[in-house]
Amino acid sequence: MDEEDAREVELSTITAIYPEELRVDEKNPYAFTIELPVSLGKPVAVKFPAASEAAVPVTLQDSIPTGPSDGLLVDSQELSNLPSLQIQISLPEGYPHSKPPCVRISTTPPWLPENVIIKLEGNAEKLWEDMGRDQVIFTYVDDVQQSVDDVFGLVGMDNTLEVGPEHKIAILDYDIEAKRKAFQKSTFDCGICLDPKKGSVCHRMLDCGHVFCKQCLQDFYNNAITEGDVASVQCLEPNCASTREKAARATTPGRRRKPKTFISPSELLQIPLDQDKVKRYVTLKHKAELESDKNTVYCPRSWCQGAARSKKHKKPEGLEFAEASEDESDQEDTAGAVAGADGKKTKEPASKDLLAICEDCGFAFCSRCGQSWHGEFKYCIPKERKDEITEEEKASLEYLQMHTTPCPTCAAPCQKTQGCNHMRCFRCQTHFCYLCSAWLNPENPYQHFNTQPSGEVNSCYMRLWELEGGDGNDVGMAYQGGQAIRNPNIRPGQYGEHLEIVQGGREDEDSDSELDEEEQVGRPDAAAAPRPLQEPVQGQQPDRRVAIAREGPLVLRIEGNALPGRGRQAHRQPAAAPPAPAPAPARGGGRQAVNGGQRGRGRGARGRAAAPGGAFAVRQNNNNGVQGQQNQRANRDGRNNGQPVEHDEPLGQALNQADEVWVRHFVQLALNDQEHLIEGDSGDEDD
Amino acid sequence: MSAAKRIGKELAECEAAPPQGMKITYNESDLHRWNITLAGPADTVYAGGTFHITMVLPPDYPFKAPIVNFTTRLYHPNVTNDTLGNICLSILKPENWKPASRIKGVLEAVRHLLIEPNPDDPLETRIAEEYKNNRAEYDKNAKQYVDRYAKGDAKK
Questions:
Q1: Which of A72, A90, A538, A574 has the most C-beta neighbours closer than 10 Å?
Q2: Which residues form the UBC core domain (chain B) (predicted)?
Q3: Which residues 62-81 in chain B show a CB within 8 A of chain A?
Q4: B7: nearest CA in chain A?
Q5: In terms of DSSP H, where are the helices of A419-539?
């Protein structure tokens, strides 16, 4: 019997005691490694001091652990598993009688302080001596094991342990992994199939910690998602949600929000469920959320009917729910409360909330009227109430129809109470003409009622003081011209889908009064000239104007008795013939032509009286405001998107052939949106 | 998840330790249908009565809740006053049922309903009103019902 045998005997004993933990070195049969897990009976608070503090790693050592300097230590984790010790032991020749075992201790990562390692390593020789130089390995390993519970004396009275911050991630990972392994090894009674199951086929619910076997969870969730019963995709433990809610309320009183009870898609994937199922779950869940919200607006396109984008219920992307912004909810609630209110006129949502964009097809539409987006200043009628407007609304619509003129910029209906026809919009401050709704140059708004710089005059020539007493029933007036321009489809008593509602009090009371002092231009003139223009006030003429304005996107207003050719040099567009042959794309093109002609005749007479000078004038009404408005109308009507052009020009009764041809050409080009080309053609342009 | 397996386990559990005051009988050929007799809990108006209950476990039990009915008529705010004997019990409602709920728990809840009616969530509003406002009348009626319907075993 010699040492050889003694080493062999001890090695086989140790191997039997630590069958899983021990690995024998391939090169040296008497060298081996024992992996000793550092699993703590009760979790210890592991602190990772900030780097500056870690530079002085003194607090850990010695038998008297000085309490870690708290205050600065914010980063603390409760852990019950620390990376295991690797005890490398080699039994040299002469062991156990003459030589002690050679012990090396290490950890990965090296979280154990050097001095502790040295002390532990030194213990081996000490023990060997104490035992009378005998086989010491088991005793030693057992001794190390015993000291694991207080982490080799590193844990102080306050049950904390400090570790360098550089090891933080590795240590946390180890703890998670150790817990996972422990979970997989343990056995659970699944509450559904009531069978005991190994942890490896079980799933611990992330939010509440209840454990079920994966098979049962898959069966149940797949079934629920297939049936569309997404509400039941929760923890399957009875009263789980309410218990957690109570607990949450106890710990954080004041917070009313319920803890999340549904299972996140990522957890379903972990269980695992099929991607398709999870996808369906996410989609259904989003849909259910939208449907339960009475404020949800849906896309008016019948083939789409998706929901409008909402900050509250974001469309989920991929397999994850989008984070909803809670703080928006109140605001949306108040805004949307209106949409649900029927009959009564309640406060309407702020116009910026009207714009809705479909989350599926991207269609931008008005959430109130369901038409494509028309800008925030337009008044529109709630979709669901189109067919059932109240008497009151009907009356105010008729009144608006009769006694207001829309602002060319923002379409706000303005009513003149007295004064001249130079108006300023109460909302956007645009200057405009009350008679024809034309935009006026703020620099010189009265120019419009006088001779143009070009020498021409327009249909409002000398009419600054028309309707001086105001527009409205109270003054026995009813001027419809401006309104007719704006709402060509409406005649009193006829309510189509383009009606617009204006709340009471919108009529402008004072927009013109402030202007009263400024104006006096041409008053004597107007008085001097026979006041010719009572027709629009008298009733028949407005009707005719309505008819004209209804012509659609391309409106050619030609009138006057001027001789062709005169205005030609003066203005960029030469004289025009009645646009009878215009190949208008809009339905009713023929009728338009007739109307145009009619009107031309009607105006002809008046034009003579109004403009005795007989100057041929072209009023270019093409400013931005009107243009925009016209576009709007065109879109709304859905007729076409051609560039609307409006000419309002007195016109000679006898037009020469050349002019007629030119007009046809121009109309043709305008329909193709190319009317600018004509300028190049006719060389005699101004500037 | 086989329903039969779980039902078998629950049956064994209930037979080994039956819920208080209950006796469970079943037909070997159909484990989805249980017949339970419940002795009216002492110190209640139902004391002395014997109540028959049927419990049908749906094919996809435990994913769906069992259906429990009193076959003995009963004067109670949460049990329909007719031959159907539907019971209003929160854990049996589809939205509250959890697969991890157990039959034994359900039966105990049914018994508890006799001890402590829940007039705030009634099936019979009139009886619930009476229970709340005229307890003496309620007690009298309930006892009358017990005498009339729940003493059947004694008569036979």
A1: A574
A2: 2-151
A3: 62-63
A4: A193
A5: 481-486, 523-528, 535-538
Given a cut of 50, whether residue A187 has pLDDT beyond it is: yes
CATH number assigned to the domain comprising residue B75? 3.10.110.10
Q: Please tell me which of the candidates B5, B101, B105 has its beta carbon nearest to residue A193.
A: B5
The verdict on residue B155 lying in a domain is no
Report the run of H or E that residue B53 belongs to, with start and end: strand B50-56
Residue B137 located in a structural domain: yes
Chain A residues close to B60, C-beta within 8 Å: 223
Continuous H helices in A317-432: 328-340, 391-403
Instruction: Choose the weakest-confidence range: A23-27, A322-326, A625-629.
Output: A625-629
ipTM of the complex: 0.84
Whether the predicted pLDDT of A572 surpasses 60: no
How many structural domains comprise chain B? 1
**Tokens read off for A18:** 């630590």
Confirm whether B154 is domain-assigned: no
Residue B156 lies in a domain: no
Q: Give the tens place of pLDDT for each residue, A330-362.
A: 344 433 333 433 333 344 445 557 888 888 888
Q: What is the CA radius of gyration of chain B?
A: 16
Q: Is the pTM of this model over 0.80?
A: no
Residues of B with catalytic roles: 88
Residue B130 predicted with pLDDT over 50 = yes
Cα A114–A119–A125 angle (5° rounding)? 135
Contacts of B5 in chain A (CB under 8 A): 193, 195
Please provide the average confidence, as pLDDT, over all residues in chain A.
Answer: 68
Own/partner pairs for A215-220, CB < 8 Å, 24+ apart?
A215/B1, A216/A190, A216/A192, A216/B1, A216/B99, A217/A192, A217/A271, A218/A271, A218/A272, A218/A273, A219/B1, A219/B63, A220/A192, A220/B1, A220/B63, A220/B99
Size of interface A-B (CB pairs under 8 A): 44
Quick one: closest CA in A to B94, which residue?
Answer: A232
Q: How confident is the model at residue A260 (pLDDT cuts 50, 70, 90)?
A: confident
Task: Report yes or no: A277 and A304 within 8 Å, Cβ to Cβ.
Answer: no
Cα distance between residue A590 and residue A330, in whole Å: 54
- The reported pLDDT for the residue numbered A255 is 56
Q: For residue A220, which residues of chain B lie inside 8 Å, CB to CB? A: 1, 63, 99
> What pLDDT does B68 receive?
92
Taking CB atoms and an 8 Å limit, are B1 and A238 in contact across chains?
Answer: no
Q: Do A212 and B100 touch (CB under 8 A)?
A: yes
The predicted structure's pLDDT at residue B136 = 92
Domain that holds residue B35: 3-149
Distances (CA, A) of A443 to A439, A540, B46: 12, 35, 95
Per-residue buried b or exposed e for A620-645, using 16+ beta carbons within 10 Å of the residue's own CB: bbbbebbbbbbbbbbbbbebbebbbb
What's the order of all strands across the beta sheet hosting B30-39? B22-27, B30-39, B50-56, B67-70
CA distance B126 to chain A (A): 30
- Residue B109 Cα to chain centre, angstroms: 8
Minimal CA–CA distance to A423: which of A518, A521, A523, A511?
A511
Q: List, for residues B67-108, the tens digit of each pLDDT value.
A: 999 999 989 999 988 888 888 888 888 888 888 888 888 999
Closest by alpha carbon to A647, among A535, A544, A567?
Answer: A567
Give the model's confidence band at B137: pLDDT under 50 very low, under 70 low, under 90 confident, else very high.
very high
CA–CA gap between residue A87 and residue A133 (Å, rounded): 20
Asked if residues A369 and A381 have their Cβ atoms less than 8 Å apart, the reply is yes
What confidence tens digit (pLDDT) does each residue in A656-677 have? Answer: 777 778 878 877 777 777 766 6
Q: How far apart are CA A605 and CA A612, in angstroms?
A: 11
